[in-house]
From TrEMBL, chain A:
Stretches of the chain forming a coiled coil according to its record: none
Native species: Gillisia mitskevichiae
Matching SUPFAM superfamilies: SufE/NifU
InterPro entries assigned: Fe-S_metab-assoc_dom
Native organism taxonomy: Bacteria, Pseudomonadati, Bacteroidota, Flavobacteriia, Flavobacteriales
Protein name: Cysteine desulfuration protein SufE
Similarity comment: family membership: Belongs to the SufE family.
UniProtKB/TrEMBL annotation, chain B:
GO BP terms, alphabetized: cysteine metabolic process
Enzyme category, top tier: transferase
Enzyme Commission designation: 2.8.1.7
Annotated GO MF terms: cysteine desulfurase activity; lyase activity; pyridoxal phosphate binding
UniProt keyword Zinc present: no
Reported cofactor(s): pyridoxal 5'-phosphate
Designated name of the protein: Cysteine desulfurase
Length: 140, 412
């Protein structure tokens, strides 16, 4: 599936919910199911320090695709991390660089990507793209 | 509300009508505003003063001969006198208008650069806000003075035995907050001031968190510097007060150069204006200063004793209810506290709790509260902080507790 298709699938899943509470409960579930980052990668170099919550992210190149694993100390942040990992993982670096995050608005979670929220998510997206740039160069 | 409090000293429902913002909804729920330690809400009486200023007598002060300028100057100087009276200060020129507490602290820290030499000691407390740590660290780096820290205990109180061992004739200045922003602990500043003066050290007390709850008598305290922000006591943002004893304010150099702070200027030599203008360079926050005076009028009409009595009841009720939640732990359990509940629920991240309760219309602060050393002491990433004001109700405490329970249910 392309990033766009996965994003549409996520939007579809969230459209089943009537209110914020169901959306959040689903997100919390997603957070709990996130494959944890290998402990050896949960180090300061992979840490994105938000003022409110922390995010760790690690990337591996598998063939010509990038696989991400990630974690957060806050479960709601982790839920969004899970959504982002699902959308961007196992994709070609060029596609990752071209993708946008409008789908986060569409599922009603825009506030979590506000830079002032300081939960590490904005920096996480930047970090995903940085990995994509780095590995794109490697692939070229 | 299940527990009926003792007879209330205030008619809260009437008081709440003064605050237009308390009528609004957030995320579809009535706003329950429990972030008063970050900033307090503004009553209509103060909003009216702000509107009146810009509608009727907006003019630059202290330099125009025209009537509007005179009117604005009179109102601004009247506000200074109101602040003087409120804090029982001997002379009105010992009150310096600032942009807020941080500005006041930096002004004094900067001035002390010329007072300190290598080997001198500066004491701060472990309970400080970053704004009362960083300026002194910068000062110590600049002068070679050594920064000493008064440690805290598990209750969130200062270790006073350790303080008395730390302070010596090497100590030049002590900085401590009156009330901790992260925990609400009321520090024994009388004892600290007395000890500082015994060794001829100066003392600055950060009153930002105390001022909304405690009416400090600065002459009785005999403190050298006291700083507050108007926006924590029903006034507007961007204005505050630095109180300094006249002898200190005369001794310290100006902080910023500009208009208003000079007597004469030539390229050879500039002489500085008298107090308080020496420290008030440029056009000040005129409207803010006047509104600060109005905010003090408002709070004094309600009465600080009434406020303290009522908030104590609110805090006791909220503490009791919160501790009924399994896994709740309160940080800052001193007997001497303002109405602040800093807490965590076992196994849950404060950010998650804050996010869910916000969805239910409850405004609380989460994070390290600009006091990372306190969080490091407890080995936690942060806390959820609910901070109460006299306009909060027991029903709001119930809504807050219900929201925390809901968050706990969703997150576990």
């Amino acid at each position: 599936m392309t990033i766009k298709e996965i994003q549409e699938e996520i939007v579809d899943e969230f459209s089943m919910f009537d209110d914020w509470m169901q959306r959040y409960e689903y997100m919390i579930e997603l957070g709990k199911s996130l494959p944890l980052i290998d402990e050896k990668y949960k180090v300061d170099e992979n840490l994105i320090k938000g003022c409110q919550s922390k995010v760790w992210v690690h990337a591996d190149l598998e063939g010509d695709k990038l696989a991400f694993t990630a974690d957060s100390d806050a479960i709601i942040t982790k839920g969004i991390v899970a959504i982002l990992v699902r959308a961007y993982s196992n994709q070609h670096p060029t596609d990752i660089l071209e993708a946008d995050n409008k789908f986060i608005d569409e599922i009603g979670l825009k506030e979590h990507l506000s830079p002032t929220r300081a939960n590490g998510l904005v920096s996480m997206i930047k970090q995903l793209k940085m990995y994509a740039i780095a590995y794109q160069t490697q692939l070229d | 509300m299940k527990v009926v409090a003792n007879k209330l000293p205030l008619d809260i429902e009437t008081i709440r009508l003064d605050f237009p913002i308390l009528k609004r909804e957030v995320n579809g729920y009535p706003l329950v505003y429990l972030d008063n330690a970050a900033t307090s809400q503004t009553p209509q009486q103060v909003i009216d003063v702000i509107v009146d200023y810009y509608s009727n007598y907006n003019a630059n002060i202290h330099r125009g001969v025209h009537s509007l300028s005179q009117e604005a100057t009179d109102k601004y100087e009247t506000a200074r006198k109101k602040i003087q009276q409120h804090f029982n200060v001997a002379k009105s020129h010992e009150i310096i208008f600032t942009s807020g507490t941080t500005h006041g602290i930096n002004l004094v820290a900067n001035g002390f650069a010329q007072e300190l030499k290598k080997g001198d000691e500066v004491i701060v407390s472990a309970l400080e806000h970053h704004s009362n740590i960083v300026p002194w660290q910068m000062l110590c780096e600049k002068t070679g003075a050594v920064l000493k820290v008064i440690p805290m205990n598990q209750e969130g109180e200062l270790d006073m035995d350790a303080f008395h061992k730390l302070i010596s004739t090497k100590t030049r200045i002590v900085f401590v907050n009156h009330v901790s922003n992260a925990l609400g602990t009321v520090n024994p500043i009388e004892e600290i001031i007395e000890a500082a003066h015994k060794v001829d050290a100066a003392i600055l007390v950060d009153g930002a968190q105390a001022a909304p709850h405690i009416k400090a008598d600065l002459q009785a305290l005999d403190v050298d510097f006291y700083v507050v922000s108007a926006h924590k006591m029903c006034g507007p943002t961007g204005v505050g007060m630095l109180y300094g004893k006249e002898k200190w304010l005369n001794k310290l150099p100006p902080y910023q150069g500009g208009g208003e702070m000079i007597a004469t200027v030539s390229f050879e030599k500039t002489t500085y204006a008298d107090l308080p203008h020496k420290f008030e360079a440029g056009t000040p926050n005129i409207c803010g200063g006047i509104a600060f005076g109005a905010a003090l009028d408002y709070m004094n009409t309600i009465g600080f004793e009434n406020i303290a009595t009522y908030e104590e009841q609110l805090l006791a009720y909220a503490t009791e209810k919160l501790l009924e939640i399994e896994g709740a732990r309160i940080y800052g359990t001193s007997k001497h506290k303002t109405a602040v509940l800093s807490f965590n629920i076992e196994g849950l991240h404060p950010y998650d709790i804050g996010t869910i309760v916000d969805k239910l219309g409850i405004a609380v602060r989460t994070g390290h509260h600009c006091a990372q050393p306190i969080m490091d002491f407890y080995k936690i990433p942060g806390t959820v902080r609910a901070s109460f004001s006299f306009y909060n109700t027991f029903e709001e405490v119930d809504l807050f507790i219900a929201a925390v329970k809901k968050a706990k249910m969703m997150l576990q």
